[in-house]
Amino acid sequence: MLHGRDVELARLAALVDDARHGTAGSVVVHGEPGAGKSALLREALSSADDVRVLRTQGLESESPLAFAALHRLLRPVLDLVARLPAPQAHALRVAFGQETGTAEPFLVGVATLSMLTEAAEDQPVVCVVDDAHWLDSASADALLFATRRLDADPVAVVFAARDSDARTFAPDGVPSVRLSGLDAASVRALLAENVPVAVPIQVSDRLVAETGGNPLALVELPTVLSEAQLDGSAALPPQLLLTSGVERVFLDRCRRLSDPAQTVMLVAVADDTGRLIDVQVAAAALGVGPDAVAEAERSGLLVLSGDTVTVRHPLVRSAVYQAATGLERRRAHRALADALDGVGDSDRATWHRAAAADGPDENLVAALDQVGARAGRRGGYRAAADAHERAADLTVDPHAKAGRQLAAARNAWASGQTARASTLLGAARERADDPLLLADVDRLRGRIAVNLGSAADAHRIFTRAAEQVAAHDPVRALEMAVAAAIAHSHGIDSGARLGAETIDVGVSPHDTPRTRCLKQLLVSTRLDIAGDRAAALRELRIAQQTALGAGDTLADLDLLGNLANAALHLGDDESHRRFYALMLSTARENGDGMAVLYALQRVPFSQYVGGQWAALRNSSEEAVTLALSVGQVAATAAPRAWLTLLAALEGRPDYDERLAVLEDLVAAHPPVGILAQPVEDLTRWAKAVRALLAGDAAGALHHFRRMAAASRPMQLPALMLMSAQDRVDAAVGADDHTQAAAWVADLEVLAAGTDLPWVHAATAFGRARTSEHGDASGGDRVPELFETSLAHHAAAHRPYDRARVQLGYGQYLRRSQRRVDARIQLRAALDTFEDLHVEALVERAAQELRASGESARRRDPSTLLDLTPMELKVAALVSQGLSNKDVAAQCWVSPRTVAFHLRNVFTKTGVTSRGELVHLGLDDPAPVPA
């Protein structure tokens, strides 16, 4: 019987019951060693005969083996892999070593989600993951990915994890329950059940005080106490330390065994397969027979069940292993390695040999290289990093050591371990003497710096690396020269410069399409840096056409990102939307989580100007979730800043809370890399918009001036341009016509240099506003300027900016007594503001309409406005003829969740069939939240 856990049992029972009724749920049960986590899980599921239970357990010795725990969990249902979409099935089989090829970890996560929902087709599923703090990282990532995306699915996931361990397991977004110590009444009941004598209250209270009510300690410690101590007739020992005390009890029990049985125990705790035959074979190699195995089982420290062997408790494992000498451990690991080689388990065998190694060993190093390569192909990047780093530790040659440290760093970066990657790169750079190896080290150093470090450092690293490698590998040099130039064009200048002839950008018949595109992009960026934006735009569009005409370039995520970055900086809305979307969709298809995060941090630029604010919210929320899942807290700043700006625009009640969270985050984890300046600008823009929409033009102007001053080192930064109409409005509203005129003059220069429709539109709007309020000589041209702005907006597709022009023009026309003409502009503005939920401007446009003599009624909103972003996404994909399973694969959710959202779409829109969705006028689907 389980004592003192009624509340926790009820919580787990409710979770399982929710799964029975088709609603997914999850929980992490936390507690110190011996708190009864495993016992709680057993008790909670003891009567759940109507659910399918899938189990796995984290093993400390198994942590370098990618997907080992996930394989154990899914082993009973592996026949369901055949039902998965082909890319998911392949990814999972590669992860489990059943097929060759490569698998990105995020695609394995999607496949895990699909497996759980397929397993739940016939009956509810409960996944039990014990000792989650010892999960191999690849399994943990895949399981958490799936757990967070379960929704309308009959699946419950229960993790159990130890507190106060070096490896913590406290995932964001998963509810937790903490097992505290038992209360006095529960302790007395537990002792009565397990102790042969009556324990008086004063003794049980002392045991509670000494053990903190820890159930395992209360069961195990009395076994080393005399009956006199337990019944109170003799004093208890002065101290009964919890963990060390229990470990000491287990170790004492082990030491009472014969030497052969103690050898069996050491082999068993060093083993990471749980297969009895492996332990028996390894023990036999050490001269120990089956009688010793039976003795260990009789002691209760080892549990045999069929062909499996389990150590009594993790504290037994740590006690026995830590007490063994280094020589004894190495002998056990060598024996296990030989046993595992005998059954073809080469990766585990290699890790055991690595644990047994006490010096350089080239054969072992080569084997570790192969283990790392296999783990990387399977998407087990942390495991791959571990293997390559251990191989480097055992390598003598400096050049070879540096190469292995670079391999470890690449995998550490891919898994989100930025600090570890940087440390490994620093070590590799100290040893590398080959220019190509140095270039590859610096390429990764620069990539880390531009995303999560100093953008100026990134510029310097890329520039110097391009200079140093140009004579040895022109294409490598070209790639890094492009990266440096993109940073420089954004105003990030470390002072480092490439020699004029370092990079050959001339056309060569031997150039691949990718190389030709890179050269064109470099030429464009250099023109931009020189101030010739018109020529830069022309050359950029040539590069874009080269990219779109060649398949290999469209798979190059770095190139897609740089084409989009250049387009964003030059103000080419359509191009940066297209190439960021291409990058995001390609990264999703590949399951490349870090590239997905990179793209999600940047697609909001195009979603904002394009009026796709629901998609912007989804992208930003997904970016936050994804960044947290890989431990990059600072990377959540940019998406949180976008969400804060949206809250300001929409007048949401959570604006103040979002701003406070953002500012606290920035204070604790300052944003880094190339997005540091945009976070600062977005925050100031949000404050300015909040003030402007509240009628405080002077307050808005204050924030816009600070934004302009902060951005001054950057050449026409994107956010300053995107906020151009807001800035002019604030300056005019605050009667600072000098500032307004200066900002309009900046726009005129840009318009002359780019000929972009939105720039012409913003320039004409600025002229209209300054002429209307400050420039008496230009007053007669106000209608013409507003009309010019709207004519350019017709080609620009910036709905919010266009509506601001329509509102301003409508106000001007009404004041000029042209009420009929005013209504046309005001109605159009009102419609857009309603669609975008800009409530302050909805009220302002409605008020102006009423003043023009028209009763302003809110139009009947489209039924599409009632749909959530996910419902819109599902409806759009289904309208293209995709099945629920195909939609699920694109959205990274389960088919059941797709069906749930589709039912909601039918209910809200009145549509009764999938075929009718095509008539709803749905836009292209936008990214959805994680």
UniProtKB/TrEMBL annotation:
Signal peptide: none annotated. It comes from the Bacteria. Pfam families: AAA_16, GerE. One of its GO terms (molecular function) is adenylate cyclase activity. Residues 860-925 form the HTH luxR-type domain. Coiled coil: none annotated. One of its GO terms (cellular component) is cytoplasm. This is AAA family ATPase.
